[in-house]
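User: Second chain of the day. Same drill as before.
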Amino acid sequence: MTRRRLPGWSELLPAVAWTVLLALLPWWLGLPCLLAVAAVLLQQGLVARHAALLRRSLRWGLPGVLIALPRAFGGDLLAWGAALLGALAGFTLLAGLEAWLDRDRRRAPEATASAEWPELAMAPIGPVTAIIELQPPLWQPAADGPGDPRGGRVECHADGYHLADGARIEGAGPQVAFSPDGRWFAARTSDDRGIVLWDRDHHRLHRLGGWMLCGWRDGQPWLARREGEMPIALQSMSGLDDES
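Assistant: Same format as last time:
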C-alpha cells in the first residue's frame, strides 16, 4: 500500500489563498472560475503537465465558492441549506470528474490481465497425464494346445502346463494367454480367483491371488482387483508372491 504524501507549505499556502479569494468574491464570479478550470482540465492532451495543479484548484476552490454562496443570500438558515446542497452536488461532480479522468489508468491493468489470460488458459496445469491403452489378453482353452508366439505349443499335463522352452507351470486353470511378444505366459488360477504370470526372460513366477489381468502395454502386464478399477503395471506393484 502506498502512503499519500502530505502537501508542503509551498503547496498549502497557495491553495488556502485560492480558497480565501473565492470566498471573498461573489459566488457568480467564483463559480465561472471553477467551471473554466474544469473545462481546461478536460483538455488532457494540452495540460498534461499542469493536471495536478488544476485538480488542486478545483478541490480547494469549491469550498471558497460554497462559503461565498450563503453570504450572498443573507446568511440565514435557508442560505446555508442551499450551500450544503451545493456542497453535496459539487463534490459529487468533482469525484465523478476525477474518476472519468483516471479511467485510462484503471483500464491499463485490466488490459494487461486480459492479454495474459489466453496464455494462462493455454498453459498446462498440474502434472502431465498420458492416456493408457491396453491390449486385452487373448484367452484360449489350454486343452486345445494354443500356439506359443516363440514357437511350439502349450501342452496340458496332469502336473501342469509344459511350454516349448521347457518351463512347467503348476496350479493354473483351464485358460491361458501370452503377451504379444511372447515374453509373458498367463493363466487363471484353478479356482478362478487370481492370476499366474510366468516371466520367461527372467524365469520368475508370480502367483497373484485376487488379481485379474486387464491387458498388456510396453511388454508389461497390467492388473486390477475388479472390473472397472484403474489397472496398474505389475512392475509398480510391491509385495508380490514370487517363485523362482
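The CA atoms of residues 90 and 96 lie 10 Å apart.

User: Great, on to the next one.
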